[in-house]
Write a structure and sequence with these properties.
- With 316 residues, the protein is of the alpha/beta class.
- The chain folds into two domains: 186 residues, P-loop containing nucleotide triphosphate hydrolases (Rossmann fold), CATH 3.40.50; 94 residues, Helicase, Ruva Protein, domain 3.
- It is 43% helix and 14% strand.
- It has 13 helices and nine strands.
- The strands form three sheets. A five-stranded parallel sheet has the order 2-5-8-1-9.
- Helix 1 packs across helix 2 and helix 12 runs antiparallel to helix 13.
Length: 316
């Protein structure tokens, strides 16, 4: 797959803007979710998309992988899916008289775990090590996953039939949780008159490759965070914990790891905006998506709580 050439004087924010523009031709009218998805990639996190079927969740994952020039794999999670169907399996080779490992679909740079909450907990948990350690341990051997490695999981609303809610340990592996929602009238008309957007993905030109993305990720991690901004992040995290006990839904406030993820996402958003430092607006932009699924009531209710926290915590 050939990456489109670009002169050396083209800035990273300009190239990121081109990525978002191309994605916007496939996923129409969803500028903010696309920006959050790209920020999640730049922050080396994983993305959870919770929404009803048919709003473009899997299309976004495929278009993102193609635009970034990364190998893409899709796993359809079902009630009878086994961990071996995700990770791979060792099969005895009679000619060589030894077991050979056959990689599962998890061995790709962008993995779409489609309808992840349709699978039982045992299969869901097979992703835990892969998402946290970026490796798979099977048959006494540890096998590294590709770098970069990025999981996009889609989830149907938990009230739908046949859904297994993700446990907190699994939810915490996702840096962000977002919704796409219904398109507005103008975007829906464009979709209705323009045909199936999935058919256009094959026409997309890769604007990046694995090495370039790794460089963008390093640049994102180096974006400056001032001490005053750290004070603001700590204030948001402290406010999420309330009096220090469990909230009404049984979950506690944001953990230190959630704080680190919040900073990583805010740095990535600042890079997309072309700034060398993180501003409070970057934190506020990503905070509902980073915090929502870690608070009580699920991603949607948690995002509303996160918005309330933003309003309640003053800037120093």
């Amino acid at each position: 797959m050939t990456v489109r050439s670009a002169s050396q004087n083209v800035s990273v924010p300009s190239r990121l803007a081109a990525v978002l523009q191309q994605l916007g031709r496939i996923v129409v009218g969803k500028e903010e979710p696309l920006e959050l998805a790209l920020a999640c990639v730049l922050a080396r996190g994983h993305l959870l998309i919770e929404d009803i079927p048919g709003v473009g969740k899997s299309t976004l994952a495929h278009a993102l992988a193609t635009t970034l020039g990364l190998r893409y794999s899709r796993i359809q999670f079902t009630s009878d899916l086994l961990p071996a169907d995700v990770l791979g399996v060792s099969i005895f080779d009679e000619r060589a008289q030894q077991f050979r490992f056959h990689q599962g679909p998890i061995f790709a740079s962008v993995v779409l775990a489609d309808e992840i909450n349709r699978a039982p907990p045992k299969t869901q948990s097979s992703l835990l090590e892969a998402m946290e350690e970026r490796q798979v341990s099977l048959d006494g051997q540890t096998r590294a996953l590709p770098d970069p490695f990025f999981v996009i999981a889609t989830q149907n609303p938990v009230e739908q039939i046949g859904a297994y809610p993700l446990p907190e340990s699994q939810l915490d592996r996702f840096l962000m949780a977002i919704e796409l929602g219904y398109p507005d009238a103008a975007a829906e008309r464009e979709l209705l008159t323009g045909g199936d957007r999935r058919a256009r993905i094959a026409e997309l030109a890769p604007l990046c490759d694995a090495a370039t993305l790794a460089e963008w990720q390093r640049e994102a991690s180096a974006v400056h965070v001032a001490p005053a901004l750290l004070d603001y992040v700590q204030a948001l995290i402290a406010a999420s914990r309330g009096g220090g006990g469990a909230d009404a839904g049984g979950r506690r406030g944001l953990s230190p790891r959630a704080g680190l993820m919040l900073l990583a996402a805010a740095r990535a958003r600042a890079l997309i905006a072309g700034r060398p430092m993180v501003l409070p607006e970057d934190v506020q932009r990503v905070f509902p998506s980073v915090a929502g699924h870690r608070l009580a009531g699920g991603a949607r209710a948690g995002a509303l709580q996160a918005q309330a926290l933003i309003r309640s915590v003053p800037l120093a």
